[in-house]
Fold each of these.
Amino acid sequence: MGGYNTNEIFRVDKGFVAQLQGVDGGRRAPMNKALREVAIKTVPDEFKIEVRHKRGMLSMGKFEAPDTGTSSFSMVLGDAPFLDNKYTIFGRVVKGDAVLKRLEQVETVLEGIFVKPKVRVEVVSAVVMYADGRGGLVLDESERRKLEL
């Protein structure tokens, strides 16, 4: 639905996480009614003991209470075992560690409890891909149009 397009990476804590704002709060682009309804939903926790918070993992943002996952998520920039079995891991960076390294070079400032970029950093566009079973990725058919835009 394009929810992450123009969304802000509001937190860059070197060696820990780079975190995207939730779809309902970090976008510059307007939201239609359908996206707004999806953006405010929460999702249940899902943990697997063998899946750990290591560099490159994508970890769902949530509130303290169980089953309150949101559309905010973090890209883990270092090992963070204290997040294991507290935050759901739903993916990982397969290619693009250079992007994570560039994020860690962004100039930051401490604001309250968050280490924030001094200038706005945002996702221009995001697409859905899935594993092909041979170690590669395949673009979801429904996403092809986005690449043409």
Amino acid sequence: MSTTGTEQPTVQVFPDREALGRKAGDDIAAELRRRLAQQDGVRMIFAAAPSQQETLARLRVAEGIDWSRVTAFHMDEYVGLPADAPQRFAAWLNKALFDHVPFGKVHLLDPTEDLAADVRQYADELASAPIDLVVLGIGVNGHIAFNDPPDADLDDPEPVRVVELAEASRRQQVDDECFDRIEDVPTTAITLTVPRLLDAERLFCVVPGALKANAVRAALTDPIGPACPATVLRRHADCTLYLDKESAAHVR
């Protein structure tokens, strides 16, 4: 996998988010089957967001996958929410995917009062073997995971860190109906950093919806930099971007 120079993601556009989800889910399943036929196991990272719902619904009914040989991680989590809060990303992924198929192991971010220890532990788990696949999205402000503009470090030396969330990212959680009010959205999170995500061999980037159209355009055409962290996807040699007609509105 190359993370130098400038690549261009493979872009696929579909008439609606249901068709997008079917194709993305089928492609992820096919890649899992291919890798499991060649190696002992697969390690993969998942984003947690309503934008991923259709893709994960398709993936969880895919046939011919030995899930017992798949290890899962998720890429970010709020700090400060109760352990049983339904808004936690771990809870969302459990409901959307992890509770439906028998993964061999699922590593969940679980912030405690000792955030430094939480960060070290998760970083160590990620580093114990290569990451094969990442299933991610793009935020309305161009963030990937919770690496927000304008301060995202595209060359961050750390694999995991605690970050303060941009207002646009917090507002997106309300627009996605995950929270009733922006005041309810935590201001702090743990996130995988940009280089940690790009270390994976293959990226599946799933981005439906009109609210993402400007971020998608920027990701594909703006200069690579922290003003739109998703521009860094153009440094990766094997990234597929799945769009629907709405999110692709400004893409030629």
Amino acid sequence: MNKSIRAKVASKYLACALLIAGASACDKKGFSYDNIVADDGTEYLITDSVTLNMSTVYLDSIPTSALGVALCGTNNDPVFGKISATSYWQVKAFSGTTIPDLAVYDSMVLMLHPARGVYGDTLLKQHVEVYRVTEEIKKPSTNTYLYSNYSFATESTPLGSREMITRPYWDTVYKVRLSDALGKEFFTLSKNKSQTITDQTRFLEYFRGLALKPGANSQIITPYPVGDSLNLRMYYHTDGSQINQTYADFAVYNPASSTSVQFNHIDFTRPPGSPLTNLSATNKSLPSTSSGNKVFVQPLTHLIARIDMPYLRTFTQYHDYTKIMRATLTVRPERLTYVYPYTLPANLALCEINSANVITDTLTSSLTGAVQYGNLVTDLVYNVNTAYTYDITNYCIAEINSSDATSRGLALVPPRSTGLTHFTRAILGDVQHPTNRVEVKIYYLRYK
């Protein structure tokens, strides 16, 4: 039956407008039909006029630990506002080779390896400062993660700082020179094999950790992979000169990815007059009609997009038998909002979200069964054909059969591995947007 149906659809190029204009479930107005009827009385129809409500949703808490990326810097985004990132972490105890008795301390530096995905113009200055943390970095007993609004006390004076132009395509490492007083202290303890620096528990009591904060002149936010960044390196030499200099490393303390307490703290201030200023922990939804016919996605500043089709549950009430064969969703970023230095998320996962704006599940394809990430196509010439596309067949069928308790909306959310490690962002048009409109198409059968 399905193959026959598809053949008929393909041969007839069938089109029909089904307007779902706001009727309640018991009021069967708001639909218009342009029927094409097969010999057996079956109608093959398509509608692209389903009522869509879009909104920007504010998420309460953003987990930023156990991601393997440290974020640091400040960027003034004209749409999302002034955003700053600070990274906190614990340091691994000394476990290197024995330091010779005649060794002499030289210096201590923090090694930073910049990654691609800088937030802002890389021609602008990066200014970082390194601080000693003075309280234990730990998760609350009931939490699995540390969140972006958490912070821990530090000393008031930085151990070291550096200003530079970040060139992630060219430079592999930046070294931030740290306090010699701290370096010599580490050196003496390491040389004497003191348990204060060799035993992890004692070391964390002595040295709580480090924070990498943006300095006053920072203009961009840079990601640093934790695997090879945030490494304290203590240089020393042994022969009366520095020709044969060697070093000992103090890496990030990361006993297991699930227990890592390295995390990123995020601050943001929305631009004056922006509709985003209306969003907060107490006002969690902003309709697209109140924000220029668009919605905003940037999880690190608590924003995701929501789509609702409020009258979908009435879809089958207008004939004895109606069957959805396929349904697609296409969302389009607003033109000129993803030109350098700002970039779109490479992946936007399609999820189900309940009435309390809690994401309940990811939505899989009816054809492959795989989680959907939008298959982004980017139009950098005209900026009008850039789009994410999704198969929402299973979602539409489920919604038609849902109750008030089981009904769900759709959410567009970058995956945790990328959406919470970089400041990519998306500005998506709604159905009334002048150039980049969201679109739903539903292909269905109706038996007379």
Amino acid sequence: MITDTTAYALTTRKLKLAYEGKVIIESLDLAIPTGKITILVGPNGCGKSTLLKGLGRLLKPKHGVVYLGSESIAKLSSKAIAKRLGLLPQGPTAPEGLTVRDLVAQGRYPHQGWLQQWSKDDEKQVNWALSITQMHEFSHYALDNLSGGQRQRAWIAMTLAQDTEILLLDEPTTYLDLAHQMEVLDLLYDLNQEQGRTIVMVLHDLNQACRYGDHLVAIRDGRVYKQGHPERVMTETMVQEVFGLESQIVSDPVAGTPLCIPIGRKVIQARDVTWKL
């Protein structure tokens, strides 16, 4: 069990999360390192998205505690959390007719108050978020009129405009083509390296997870199967036991990180035929 929560950005103790009475996360102890990129991997339905919602207080625990630094997240106000932690869930929705700029501007709401209305800093942050996600030219478009990839980038811009020390992102590359996937991941990497932001995200692509993650958490059936540096976590045994998939792990010839080569039925059958010959 983690005893010093101040050493981590987010910590859970005996965390239990459930939907409609069904337990998804059970007695989970997890520590998210400060200033690092942590990536959650695992098969569909294993609890990755549920865990992210629990970390962001979108889902109230049935048992256990989530700590934001040294403080129980349950005891903090919503505005206090929103100033420190930005969360982009899977499949977010917005009111019909909302423009991209209006959506991104919502990221500044935690910084507003009765005595502090829209400021030059708010405007600067919104323009920066639109620019860095390459959404400035679409700022006056309604979200409804955008492609799935453009909408995803708009939501990412809103999260960035919030300007928090911690970012929780559930599949941020969803709907994006390969080029835009790399742009988003490179952007998050730059934010981590240059500004020291703590980033936690769910990714399905294991090879992207190894390239961009400092800390990998492999989840199986609502529990942590293994966590640590990608070279420690990404093994053929882990892929078999977590994903039920035979694979070969080699060194990425470009990045030097673990590279997972899945071995499907076609390859296995072809290999068996070759052996028989």
